[in-house]
Structure formats: structure tokens, C-alpha cells
Amino acid sequence: MTFGTTPFVQRGTYNDPVFAEAMVVRTDVFVREQGVPLENEKDEYDDGSIHWVVYASIPSPSSNHAANHDKHAVNGVSSETELSQNRTPVGTIRLIPPTISKKSYVLLGRLAVLEPFRKLGLARLLVEEALRYAESEGSAGGFDLPGEGLKWDGKCYIHAQTNVQGWWAKNGFYRDDDAGEWDEEGIMHVGMWKDVVLERRRSIVTL
């Protein structure tokens, strides 16, 4: 199925409208489609996490022409305000920073795309956005907790549903054989890793 839409991504936190729209997608996919209890879908990590939503927007013919020549578009994705009209949230992902989880790694999760919009590259787009943000924040030391001796080294972890671990592998993640497989909400999962290369930035001291 082909959609005459232009996808674009927005990032937000728990108190932003982005999170409410992320929950619309998560509820549709995880609760309605996969049978996860509604009360378990939202958890204690949502508050401190970073959330992304990808939207399908149907611009007017004139703005569509402009979007095709938008010099600010990256990989065909534009965040220009004219594309926000008639937007529909169709996919989401979240990132739990080490500063929230107190773990030595970034935890990606809650990746979901509405069924009619799958196989359009939106899931990969969301993962790339999250990893790009992690690389930027991590390189600047934003995921470190010096007082607790935590310095993020670029490791990212996911709890992948076993039936899609091949998809994650195609996107650079490798299986955590030590973790084995486990059941989450009646769905079997495996752990998978990906290493992000960080460019640690030295502090500039002005004398």
C-alpha cells in the first residue's frame, strides 16, 4: 500500500504533547494488537525518558512541492511547520538515559509503528533518530553521572521480541547470548546490543 504522505519526526519528554501522541501509538500496537494490559504499558521510566514520534502528514500541493526541494530535509524527512497540518502519529520509540536507569547503557524500547504504515522504513528512521541523539548527548557527557562513577561508553541495549530480532540484527544490533530468552507480558524477548562510537569533547579552558 502506498501513502501520499511525508513523514517527519518530533522529539519530546513526558510533559510534552509528543508523549501523549506516543501513547496513542503504543496503546494501539502493544495493548490492542499484542494484548499487553493497559496498566502495564506505561511505566516508571516514561517520566525521565526521551520520546520520538513519527507522523504521517498530508500537505497541500503547494507545500508538497516545497518539501520536495526543502534543503533542510534529511533522508527525505522534513520537520517544517507547514507539514504539521493534518498530521497523524504513526510510530514511536523511547530512550531511557543512563542518568535515569542508573545503568551503564542506554536502553531503547517501545518501538512501535501502526500496522498500515509498516515496511515503509519508519521503524528504522526512529531508531536512527534515537541513536543520533544518544551519540550527540553521550559525546557531550550528557549521559554521565560523575558523582556516581557512571560514564556512558556508548553501549545501547534493547529488549527485542524474538520474532523481530532479525530486523534488529539488520540494523546493527547483536544478540546478548548471556541473557538468553525471557517472557515479557506473554511475549518472548531477547537482549541485543549496539555500540555507538562517541567523540568525547574536551573542555576548553580560558586563561
Strand content: 25-35%
According to CATH, the fold-level topology is: Aminopeptidase
C-alpha-based Rg, rounded = 18 Å
Taking pLDDT < 50 over at least 5 consecutive residues as the criterion, the unreliable ranges are: 63-83, 202-207
Which percent bin holds the helix content?
25-40%
N-to-C span: 62 Å
Secondary-structure element sequence? EHHEHEHEHEHEEE
Query: Count the helices. How many?
Result: 6
Report mean pLDDT, rounded to a whole number: 85
CATH class: Alpha Beta
The CATH superfamily label reads Gcn5-related N-acetyltransferase (GNAT)
CATH architecture: 3-Layer(aba) Sandwich
The largest pleated sheet is described as: 8 strands, mixed
Number of domains: 1
DSSP, total strands: 8
Outline: globular
Counting helices, strands and paired strands, the structural category is alpha+beta
Protein name: N-acetyltransferase domain-containing protein
Domain N-acetyltransferase: 34-197
GO molecular function: acyltransferase activity, transferring groups other than amino-acyl groups
InterPro entries: Acyl_CoA_acyltransferase, GNAT_dom
Task: Describe the overall structure.
The protein is an alpha+beta fold. It has one domain (about 5-195): Gcn5-related N-acetyltransferase (GNAT) (Aminopeptidase, 3-Layer(aba) Sandwich). It is built from six helices and eight strands. The chain has helices at about 15-35, 40, 60-70, 100, 120-140, 165-170; strands spanning about 5-10, 50-55, 90-95, 105-115, 155-160, 175, 180-185, 185-195. Strands 1, 2, 3, 4, 5, 6, 7 and 8 form an eight-stranded mixed sheet that branches. The relative contact order is 0.15. The model is unreliable at about 65-85 and about 200-205 (pLDDT under 50). This is N-acetyltransferase domain-containing protein. GO terms for molecular function: acyltransferase activity, transferring groups other than amino-acyl groups.
